[in-house]
Design a protein that fits this description.
heterodimer, A: about 450 residues, Butyryl-Coa Dehydrogenase, subunit A, domain 1, Butyryl-CoA Dehydrogenase, subunit A, domain 3, 3 domains, two-stranded antiparallel sheet, 13 helices, globular, B: alpha+beta, Butyryl-CoA Dehydrogenase, subunit A, domain 2, four-stranded mixed β-sheet, four-stranded antiparallel β-sheet, about 50% helix, about 15% strand
């Protein structure tokens, strides 16, 4: 764990010079040379520095295929060295530390206001993009920086960002889910058409739209349909809790496709028949959640993502669940880190309330269950990276994060008593956000 | 690189242990549950095999080979999967077979673990290879081991032990008993030491064998020590009375907590596997893609239990991995023990409930596992003691602040 420290400073701190903050997060790291990714990361950085404000229109940009490869480019599978290991490798550690530093310095201080205003400051999203989070799933041939599949890396970053704020993390990570999906399952043409935008200077807002607005939603029994009409597809349905839908230029929409089964479709925001409806929710408010309403949206035959394999779709569902687990782990850790000093300082009956077992044991349980959730999430992600089946592992991580994560959110408020119920402390926000881990489908991707 | 899969090099060990569990433990599991206090002689032959498994230093151990932290010769930054992890894996497999029988394995007692962990070279030579039980608990001192009343007085070249010990696992069958006693009751925990007593010492009197809820294959003995004389050299570790001495004694528990967690993980897996079969026969199968709430309630319940099992298992592997890599793991060891202990009880009882009369009846082992499981949330530190240890570490509190 100490291999990347230089003096007392972490990789991220060393590169976080005055005023440069996250922008310069990587430049000072000797790790870049050691693990030979400097060139790609420098390219990302260069493009990052050029990016400015963008006023997105609902019409969106025109996506055009650049150099198209004969067959889809794919990131390599990770090769495990075979030993049980809980230490991140150098590259993972670098992203993790940068994510943590960014979350602490920028995300957490902005969280209260972002929750109240239901918006994440564009500068913050820009800085998050500069962390490289939108291109982790883009193959190198198409401008990405990661040679191998990066589910674990994504999980580590997502966990770190959610320690700052889950809603901001959702807003920031949502476009990357679309890039990853296209990079993992898209056709050569889809990759060439859409991926360059995610590595360029102006990353589009984008959303992986799977969840539908109804009780007992099951991603394998979709009500959104895709009907064949000649060569075209015609989509109808509604998608829920999409991050920043007003700004989205690209959607990946899950629909029950005629003759195919549940599958994903690439839908540009300018497509006729799309409309957005605001959908404020209990939490995730900085992501300005909304609904995508689809009425007779006509898409070309090439809009079906990849070849529409059921296996790909199932894997997509699982990877999304893993990503939400990562957020739940980060937020649960935030609860733990917040309640510890509180219960140690809060006095009742002449001593700190943490001197009482009733309080102390609740803290123990938060610690134990958070660690269990984290390990289960890491396991699912690492199996995804190395190409092993991870359906069971993803389901287990989700079960833990839905149930224990919510319990942790509830105990976080409980431990602060009445003070936990008011906005003076962040625990009430975490309570609202942690409910999402058991509700969300899609939206993010590990 | 983060990887939570079991390394290939441990597969032979795990499959060997699984064979033992399947071929030796399971067929006699019910027999010794019914015939409490009779010695499972089938284990004698097996014990020699296990001794062999413990021989190798890296891939070894299905039991209490001891958990000495030796200087790690290899590159300090290098990831190691060593004897702590392999021991945990072996125990999981064997307890999937039968936890009571594992606890009855000759020469695999907790006392052996203590000896292997803290004995001097001389003591290792004298006591190594013999079966050692551990006697800590007293009628008035359970979890509060610092309240021990059994005394040890130096008389010439011998210590004289007096007191009463209860809940000594394999106490009647073992060759040696490691007895915890105080050199001076006024000096508190600093004066507590452990002494190796030969089972045939005339000062050591067997009072009775307990009749228990579960792990009935394993004998639990109560003793009285009356002017029980042992040579000076029988004191394990440092004879000086100093505060750190007790910490040393307690370190044994840091090392054995993941092993008990592993026992709980093994029993839990056994119950889940059996229940999965019964549910399938009843037409209920867990689907890992469909949301739990859209499935049969029994499937949703099963998934929740399986999730807790997996969390307990991974926490246990984490604690063992940290020990292999010389990382302080007292917090993680207690987390693993707390999670695995309560999960084992909840899951085995839940499995009986799911399987109804089939689970409750003695034709199957489910009801037995639901009885065996309870002790795993009690011995080697109860659930509540583990939560205390975890809380003190997380909150940065001393044992006097958080009692």
């Amino acid at each position: 764990m100490t291999t990347t420290t230089d003096g007392d400073k972490t990789v991220a701190e060393r590169s976080m010079g005055v005023g440069l903050r996250a922008l310069n997060w990587l430049a000072g790291s000797d790790l870049l040379d050691r693990i030979r990714i400097r060139k790609g990361v420098e390219r990302a950085l260069f493009q990052g520095t050029k990016s400015g404000f963008r006023t997105a229109t609902v019409a969106g940009r025109t996506f055009k295929a650049a150099q198209q490869l004969g067959k889809p480019a794919r990131q390599a599978r990770g090769r495990s060295r075979g030993l049980f290991d809980l230490s991140p490798d150098d590259e993972q550690q670098m992203f993790q530390e940068a994510g943590r530093a960014f979350a602490e310095a920028e995300i957490r201080p902005a969280a209260l206001e972002a929750d109240a205003s239901r918006s994440t400051p564009p500068e913050l999203l820009g800085q998050a993009t500069e962390l490289g989070i939108n291109m982790l799933g883009v193959p190198e041939e198409l401008g990405g920086v990661m040679q191998e599949q990066a589910a674990v890396t994504t999980v580590l970053i997502a966990e770190a960002l959610a320690h700052g704020d889950m809603g901001i993390a959702y807003a920031a990570l949502a476009p990357g889910a679309v890039a990853t999906a296209i990079g993992v399952w898209g056709s050569a043409e889809q990759e060439a058409t859409y991926l360059p935008a995610f590595t360029g200077e102006d990353v589009p807002a984008a959303a992986l739209a799977i969840l539908e607005p109804r009780p007992l939603f099951d991603p394998l029994a979709l009500e959104t349909t895709a009907r064949r009409d000649g060569e075209d597809w015609v989509l109808d349905g509604a998608k829920s809790l999409i991050a920043r839908p007003q700004e989205c230029e690209l959607f990946l929409v899950a629909a029950e496709a005629e003759g195919v089964g549940p599958a994903l479709f690439v839908v540009e925001s300018g497509t006729q028949g799309l409309s957005i409806e605001d959908e404020p929710a209990m939490g995730l408010r900085p992501a300005a959640t909304g609904r995508l309403l689809i009425e007779g949206a006509r898409l070309p035959g090439t809009a079906l993502l990849g070849e529409g394999h059921r296996q790909d779709y199932l894997e997509c569902i699982d990877r999304a669940r893993i990503a939400w687990c990562a957020l739940a782990v980060g937020t649960s850790q935030a609860v733990l880190d917040y309640v510890i000093p509180y219960v140690n300082e809060r006095q009742a009956f002449g001593e700190p309330v943490s001197n009482r077992q009733g309080v102390a044991f609740a803290v123990s349980d938060i610690g134990i269950e958070t660690d269990g959730m984290r390990l289960a999430t890491y396991r699912a992600a690492s199996r995804a990276d190395t190409g092993e089946d991870f359906r069971r592992e993803a389901a287990i991580a989700r079960r833990l994060c839905a149930e224990k994560g919510m319990r942790i959110g509830s105990d976080g408020v409980q431990l602060l008593g009445g003070h936990g119920f008011v906005k003076e402390h962040p625990v009430e926000r975490w309570y609202r956000d942690l409910r999402a881990a058991g509700v969300m489908e899609g939206g993010l991707l590990a | 690189m983060i990887n939570l899969e079991i390394p290939k090099k441990f597969r032979p060990l795990a499959s060997q242990a699984n064979q033992v569990a399947t071929e030796v433990f399971r067929p006699i599991s019910r027999k010794y549950d019914e015939a409490e206090h009779s010695y499972p002689k089938e284990l004698d032959m097996l014990a020699s095999l296990i001794d062999g498994m413990n021989e190798g230093s890296d891939i070894g151990g299905a039991g209490a080979a001891g958990v000495r932290r030796e200087a790690n010769g290899s590159d300090p930054g290098e990831n190691r999967n060593g004897s702590n992890l392999s021991t945990v894996l072996g125990i999981i497999e064997l307890c999937w077979g039968d936890v009571g029988l594992l606890l009855s394995m000759p020469r695999q007692g907790l006392g052996n673990s203590a000896i292997a962990s803290v004995a001097t070279e001389e003591q290792l030579e004298r006591y190594g290879g013999r079966w050692a039980a551990m006697a800590i608990t007293e009628p008035e001192a359970g979890s509060d081991s610092a309240a021990i009343r059994t005394t040890a007085e130096l008389d010439g070249d011998e210590y004289v032990l007096n007191g009463e010990k209860i809940f000594v696992t394999s106490g009647d069958r073992a060759d040696l008993i490691v007895v915890w006693a105080t050199l001076d009751r006024s000096k508190g925990r600093a004066a507590i030491k452990s002494f190796i007593v030969e089972r045939d010492n005339p000062g050591l009197k067997l009072d009775r064998l307990e009749h228990k809820l579960g792990i009935r294959a394993s004998d639990t003995a109560n003793f009285t020590l009356q002017d029980c004389r042992v040579p000076k050299e029988a004191l394990l570790g440092d004879p000086e009375v100093k505060e750190k001495g007790f910490a040393g004694v307690m370190e044994t528990f840091d090392n054995t907590r993941p092993l008990v967690a592993a026992m709980a993980v093994g029993v839990t897996r056994a119950a889940l596997e059996e229940t999965r079969k019964h549910l399938a026969e009843a037409g209920v199968e867990v689907d890992y893609s469909i949301p739990a709430l859209s499935q049969h309630a029994a499937a949703a319940r099963f998934l929740a239990m399986e999730a807790d099992y997996e969390a307990a298992r991974l926490l246990t592997l984490q604690a063992a991995w940290m020990a292999d890599n010389s990382k302080p793991n007292s917090l993680q060891a207690s987390m693993a023990k707390a999670k695995a202990g309560r999960t084992c009880v909840d899951v085995t009882l839940g499995c009986v409930e799911l399987c109804g009369a089939v689970g409750y009846g003695e034709n199957e082992l489910l009801e037995k596992w639901a009885r065996d499981s309870k002790i795993l949330d009690i011995f080697e530190g109860t659930q509540q003691i583990q939560l205390l240890i975890v809380a003190r570490q997380l909150l940065g509190k001393s044992s006097s602040e958080l009692r």
